[in-house]
């Protein structure tokens, strides 16, 4: 997860992370014996979530991304890091559908928390509100 705050996850990568995490948790907690039939069976995702109370890897990554976006937005427009993350490239775009950018992922994460109308730059100015949103992202339910 080193540097995960700069990742721009597509839906495919999100799904693969969830699958990997569930596979590791199933190995840790081992199959359970069914009371009715007596056969060993794999744990369902809900059972894994009940057994492992820590936040999922996906929620940790989202919270780190929002925390990093708040820090970048708070440093100001004159810094190069700000220009790289929030700047607009010059020139024409290709004809196909544009890829999801890091900035687009931040907007989607803020909408999930219920802050879709606010700009992440406004959030960066108030550290207490930014911390509240990071904790709200950690409590999101992941489908």
List keywords for this structure.
2 domains; mainly alpha; 2 strands; two-stranded antiparallel sheet; 143 residues
Q: How would you explain this protein's 3D organization?
A:
The chain has helices spanning 11-29, 45-51, 57-75, 80-86, 102-113, 120-125, 127-138, and strands spanning 32-33, 40-41. Strands 1-2 form a two-stranded antiparallel ribbon. With 143 residues, the chain is mainly α. β1 (32-33) and β2 form a beta hairpin. The chain folds into two domains: 10-54, no CATH class; 55-89 and 99-143, no CATH class. α3 (57-75) runs antiparallel to α7.
Short description:
The protein has 143 residues and is an all-alpha fold. It is 57% helix and 3% strand.
Number of domains: 2
Q: Roughly how much helix do the residues carry, as a percent range?
A: 55-70%
**For this entry, what is the oligomeric state of its chains?**
single chain
> What structural class do helix, strand and pairing data support?
mainly alpha
Widest sheet, order of strands: 1-2
Order of helices and strands: HEEHHHHHH
The largest pleated sheet is described as: 2 strands, antiparallel
Described by the principal axes of the CA atoms, the overall outline is elongated
Helix count from the secondary structure assignment: 7
Instruction: Determine the strand fraction and express it as a percent band.
Output: under 5%
């Amino acid at each position: 997860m080193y540097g995960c705050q700069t990742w721009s996850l597509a839906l495919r990568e999100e799904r693969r992370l969830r699958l990997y995490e569930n596979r590791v948790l199933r190995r840790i907690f081992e199959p359970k014996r069914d009371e009715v039939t007596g056969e060993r069976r794999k744990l369902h995702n809900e059972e894994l979530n009940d057994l492992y109370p820590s936040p999922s890897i996906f929620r940790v990554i989202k919270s780190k991304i929002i925390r990093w976006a708040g820090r970048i937005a708070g440093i100001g427009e004159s810094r190069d890091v700000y220009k790289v993350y929030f700047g607009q490239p010059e020139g024409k775009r290709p004809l196909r559908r544009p890829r999801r950018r890091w900035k687009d992922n931040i907007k989607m994460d803020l909408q999930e928390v219920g802050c879709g109308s606010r700009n992440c730059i406004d959030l960066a100015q108030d550290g207490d509100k930014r911390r509240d949103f990071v904790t709200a992202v950690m409590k999101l339910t992941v489908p």
